[in-house]
Specification:
This protein is of the alpha/beta class. It folds into 5 domains: 110 residues, Rossmann fold; 76 residues, Udp-n-acetylmuramoylalanyl-d-glutamate--2,6- Diaminopimelate Ligase, Chain: A, domain 1; 116 residues, Nucleotidyltransferase, domain 5 (2-Layer Sandwich), CATH 3.30.420.180; 108 residues, Tetrapyrrole methylase, N-terminal domain (Cobalt-precorrin-4 Transmethylase, domain 1, 3-Layer(aba) Sandwich); 123 residues, Methyltransferase, Cobalt-precorrin-4 Transmethylase, Domain 2 (2-Layer Sandwich). The strands form 6 sheets. A 6-stranded mixed sheet has the order 2-1-3-4-5-6, sandwiched between helices. It binds S-adenosyl-L-homocysteine. The site of S-adenosyl-L-homocysteine has 25 residues, from helix 15, strand 25 and strand 27.
Amino acid sequence: MIGLIAATANGRRNAAHLANAWPDARLYEGKVKEALNLAWNECDGIVLFLATGAAVRLVAPMLESKLRDPGVITVDDAVNFAVALCGGHEGGANDLASRVADTLGATPVITTASDSVGVPALDSLGERLGLQLEEGSDLASVGAALVSGEKVNLVFEGRWPLGPLPGNVVRPDKWEAPLILISDRLVETPRPAAVYRPPSLIAGVGCSRGTRADEILDLLRLSLAEAHLSEKSVAAVASIDVKRDEAGLLEAADRLGVPLRFHPAKVLSAVETPNPSEVVRGAVGTPSVAEAAVISSGAQLVVEKRKSENVTVAIGRMPVRGRLALVSLGPGDDALIPPLAREALVTSELVVGLEQYVGRVRHLLRPGTRVLTPPLGNEMERAELALAEARAGGSAALVSSGDVGVYAMASPVLELAGEDVDVVVVPGVTAAQAAASLLGSPLGHDHCSVSLSDLLTPWEVIGERIRAAAEGDFVISLYNPRSKGRDWQLGKVREILLTHRPPDTPVGIVKDAYRPTQQVTITDLASLRPEDVDMLTIVVVGSSQTRVVAGRMVTPRGYFS
Ligand code: SAH
């Protein structure tokens, strides 16, 4: 049992998050000293949400022996650090500090010499998204308000997929300090305010041969200033492809520190623009360069074409793209959750999935993450929920067990998702791979998977695929092999396979791979009893070459024959 003791509002909030996320954690309420007395006798580990000084003073009189005392962790109010205070090894405090740090997004502080710990990345606001802090922002005072639990107002123009934010960050109706503003517009803000510039603007530029970079930058800066837009938000410069070697243009983009995007005249001339010019058409084959380059980059024109002697500039705003991560959780054990999946989870504002899967990763989610768990059978609803969040400019994760792309949610989502959202697919360890690792190496040569579920595939097709796989001498992983209402197919599959393979062909049966209830059996085709198999099982049938070596199922690659 892990005891949780807090004294401040922030501490209580974070303690409640742990209590909710961990089945083995318990909140001790009331006076801190009395709570600690109780927890000391009942718990293997204790997490204090206190300053180290207060923690040391409280704990010191209770210490007896490092062999018997519980491990003690203390977490600062801002959840920056989870400090393993005492009982690092024997008391399990080092491991507990890492666990606390994982769940709360803190850095574990471990001072025993022999431990090296993986430090989880602490995302600074918007860094991932390319947000830049405006000079003169009141970072210290807004930061102090944020960590002390005071209400902080967040205003963004166009939503940005920021990831989960602390509960004291609110979206206000009117602008009030302390304020976090995410905007490309130069506006007055109440103080204190932290202003972030998103990479949201694109500058379309046309120019004559030999134009100097200074003239381009002067006109661009003037256009931005007059439109009250921040130069920090310019994320790219766009032009016509005949300008690929235009030195002044290349230098201007370089001095802005942004990439150049070139569009062919044919593409530009097809774009309708407010200020076309026949003179320009005569020169480069399109009536607009600056405005057309902005629009063909997918941006909305916010500043129409302006001219200096040799330069034209137009400015557009890119639509904000939300992000949907399709996340693989592996077969069951936390250790097989890929680091990329953990990263996707901690950067998502919304996590969608079946309760049985989301439940496995709740302890990895950051405070402030919203969770939706529509029941089994609502695949389309789950896909739509996650997509809607991403389409609105948010960041969502949709989770599946094993690999999200294998008999799981990636396909239905990608059938629905348009180009307006960024989709990231995080791969994972499939049930077949997990089972294979427990059986030995049955997938060492050519293999395939067949799902016996006839919900979406008629049995005739399934049976035909089994026959073809048997004829092709593939090792076959049978997914969804048998359920309560679907109990004869596996017997039929065995029959088909026995007409192509000998009765002593090795068969591996793995139930609940990498879960506490795991069962691994190696048998053969003749002895395979469908009644030993259920929906949480995968059956791996060997090829004509598969053998059992020292109790392990092996499909040779041919080195020793
Ligand atoms: N996306 C998953 C597959 C989901 S289909 C993957 O990549 O593994 C569900 C089927 O997968 C189950 O009926 C069962 O056959 C198999 N399965 C999933 N997890 C399993 C586990 N831990 N042990 C054994 N089989 C499993």
